[in-house]
Records
---
Amino acid sequence: MKSLPFAGPIPPVHQRVSVFRIFLLVLLLYSLPIVLYAQSSEALSIGTLKAVPGEIVSGNLVVDSGVDQGTTIPVSIICGTKPGPVLTLLAGLHGTEYVPIIALQRLKSLVQPNELSGTLVLIHVANTLSFKEKMVYNNPVDHKNMNRSFPGKKEGTLTERMTYTITSEVLPKSDYYIDLHGGEFNERIIDYLYFYYNCPDPEMDKKSYELAHAMSNKYLFPFDYTWIADTAASEFSDFEALRQGASAITLEWGDRGIVTAEELEVATSDLLNVMRKTGMLEGEAYTNEHPVYLENEQAMTCNYDGIFYPLTDRGQYVIKGTKFGYTTDYWGKVVEEYFTPISGIVIVTIATPAIKKGQVVGRVAEVRETFERK
Ligand SMILES: [Zn+2]
């Protein structure tokens, strides 16, 4: 504005008019970025919650009752004063995966709107009913697994209506999406994550790759997008997010529902790092240059109700045919033994004695040196 031609003697009226026109033109040109700024630093609504730039809004996303009872999903929206992407972090799809839930509470206290470019959406506990009941995998009302139920159904049972609500209210508004899991009460699990490659949109492909490598998780599981048929249901929240145009990953933090100070520190700093990587916070972002890539995940399933005895641990390297564990009946007779179907890393093993027919007792994955994009 210092270069505006107002210094010096006052010009004649006709000249003053043209100077005024120039002033208007310059004012218009100078104000254009301000107008664009206001347009791209927008308010965001989720359900009945709405946050405008500079605001932190918390409340419940309501899932109405239908064929069974309804529920609420606690959400916070932190709307930055500067333009940028929308990042959604979702925790608690499963009821006893606690590290992400506590990490989101910490993150909420650390991110201020005046330091934020874009909008941060926190789904604090996606499945409050399972959380309250301390119930693993499934919802206590309809006994369905939320992360096998995307995109959901408007008129379905509770789990399907919950996923439908997230599919319709949250995912389409997200540019980046991270589904945060961990070891349930009964699981010993390594800190790994899934990301998709060969996505239809190269930009989304690149951003999902960047998200995955902005986390310090040691093990990364690249999953080929083209392996899933276009006609197949999404099932998983991250895949539904990708289908709706958000770059997305799913990760696992924590073990047996335990929250340690160290894990919490890593989780919080990783989430802040993602926000730097996506340009939402200032500062240089860390990149995980040397992850261990996994592939060909194989599950071992129990065919009896009984008592499970694990013989391997998470992160252990096993060869094909290693005795993984066994199940006895309630009186102590061995009814089933499990042997690893491949050589690789134990990514999860059941750590509690209780097991029932049809449940997975463990998973193993192979180490891959790299992966090829098409
Ligand atoms: Zn989970």
---
Amino acid sequence: MNARQKRSKKAELAKEQGSCCWWCRCHLPLHKLTIDHLKPKSKGGSNSSENLRLACFECNNSRGNSLYPPERIYKIRS
Ligand SMILES: [Zn+2]
């Protein structure tokens, strides 16, 4: 995805999911959110909306290529 595609994809996701992190539920302005792949691209995940979620940098970064939610959300929620 190029920068423009990412921007429009983010706007699309924000409309469906709200402008917040899918994992930790923090509300952030769109430009601070990243596009996270539920199934990482390196594991065959697609760029379709079903596989994409908005995530804050910390969550996206801590997930890396994992198939599982970032560990930090368990610490935040407990
Ligand atoms: Zn988050």
